[in-house]
Design a protein that fits this description.
The model has no long low-confidence stretch (mean pLDDT 94). By secondary structure, this protein is α+β, with helices and mostly antiparallel strands. The protein contains seven helices and eight strands. The relative contact order is 0.12. The N and C termini lie far apart (66 Å). An eight-stranded mixed sheet has the order 1-2-3-4-5-6-8-7. It has one domain: Aminopeptidase.
């Protein structure tokens, strides 16, 4: 039996490298949606893979998606609609006009360009948030420096670092910092003044990568913060 024939994910947003589709039970049964969160090695920079995620947990989560406090979409390969990840706008607050963004690519080995595919998926759902939901701010958090390469990629679609959360991420007894990041509607408008969409195509993204400064904004912010902190708190911590 060809299991791929039983996948019938409904397309929600069509992309260049990947499509964003509406989840259904086959994402759990055929593509391992629930299992992505049980991979301890690949989840070291997330909060997943600490407690086991069960089939029943994922089914319950799928059933909860009819509520209008989140938009969760499958990241699917263009060629065969196999689900390789999930991207979401969560905690949607229509009073504050903001939402929490999150992404998980569970099967990176099934993508030829996993980093760019994840970036396109983020761009598509972010644009949907601004254009269709009317959001003013889309925000998130990231382990740092664990995800500093991914954070630098996000600069290409308008995400900026708002601040550094000291010891904001832990895995077991290992603590590292985390970043507060966001893309504002005004950032989005500024970008599309020069291109029609957040995602201008993989060729244009690769050109931007060549122009991008070697150090990310987060790395520069960290260096400046350490310098200012050392000077400022010298009165209190003599050993700094």
């Amino acid at each position: 039996m060809n299991l791929a024939e039983h996948r019938n994910y409904k397309l929600f947003i069509s992309g260049e490298l990947v499509d964003l589709c509406i989840p259904d039970l086959s994402a759990i049964e055929l593509d391992g949606w629930g299992d992505w969160f049980n991979n301890i090695d690949t989840n070291q920079n997330t909060t997943h893979g600490v407690y086991p995620n069960f089939y029943e947990n994922q089914v319950d989560y799928l059933k909860s998606l009819h509520k209008k406090d989140k938009i969760v979409l499958l990241v699917c390969r263009k060629e065969d609609r196999v689900a390789v990840g999930v991207v979401a706008l969560q905690d949607i607050d229509m009073n504050a006009r903001e939402a929490l963004w999150a992404i998980m690519i569970g099967n990176t080995e099934k993508l030829s360009l996993p980093g760019l595919a994840a970036l396109e998926a983020t761009a598509m759902i972010s644009e949907h948030g601004f254009k269709e939901l009317g959001l003013q701010r889309i925000y998130g958090g990231q382990a740092y420096p664990g995800l500093k390469g991914w954070n630098k990629l996000l600069e290409l679609i308008g995400y900026q670092v708002d601040g550094i959360h000291r010891n904001g991420h832990n895995r077991g007894n290992k603590y590292t910092d985390s970043l507060y990041i966001s893309c504002l509607y005004k950032d989005y408008l500024q970008i599309i003044e020069s291109r029609k969409h957040l995602w201008p195509g993989s060729m244009e993204i690769k050109k931007l990568l060549r122009k991008q400064p070697k150090k990310s904004y987060a790395e520069k912010l960290e260096e400046i913060t350490i310098k200012i902190k050392k000077e400022h708190f010298s009165f209190l911590f003599k050993s700094q």
